[in-house]
Amino acid sequence: METYGYNEPQNGNTPAPYHSGKKIAAALLGIFLGAFGANKFFLGYIKEGIIQIVLNIVTCGIATVLPFIEGIIYLTMSDQQFDNTYVRNKKGWF
Fold first, then answer.
1. Do residues 42 and 25 make contact, with C-beta atoms less than 8 angstroms apart?
2. Beta-carbon count within 10 A of 56 CB
3. Which of 13, 29, 55, 79 has the CA that lies 20 to 30 A from 64?
């Protein structure tokens, strides 16, 4: 059963508010360890993680700004929007 905005009901009561378990972790990894593609690997985007590492090597670390921005974007999204965009639909970049 697909839910929109709410998790499955607990003990037959009203459903709990929707919460994406990967959003905060992915955002923090992007902000602090994005140079190593940590946020991409965490979300299962192996190819994009390798591209991020190569970009950082080629640009001498300047490309680190990309995962930093992605981390901020993750934090500003709602949990449901993050889950739909990056977990279910597998959008690799921004």
1. yes
2. 19
3. 79
Backbone angles phi, psi at 15, to 5 degrees: -65, 150
Beta-bridged to residue 15, according to DSSP, are: 9
Q: Which helix (H) or strand (E) holds 21?
A: none
| Structural tokens at position 61 | 């670390």
Encode pLDDT of 21-69 as tens digits. Answer: 889 999 999 999 999 999 999 999 999 999 999 999 999 999 999 999 9
CB-based burial, 66-92: b 16+ in 10 Å, e otherwise: bbbebbeebeebebbebbeebbeeeee
Q: Decide: 20 and 74 in contact? Cβ < 8 Å.
A: no
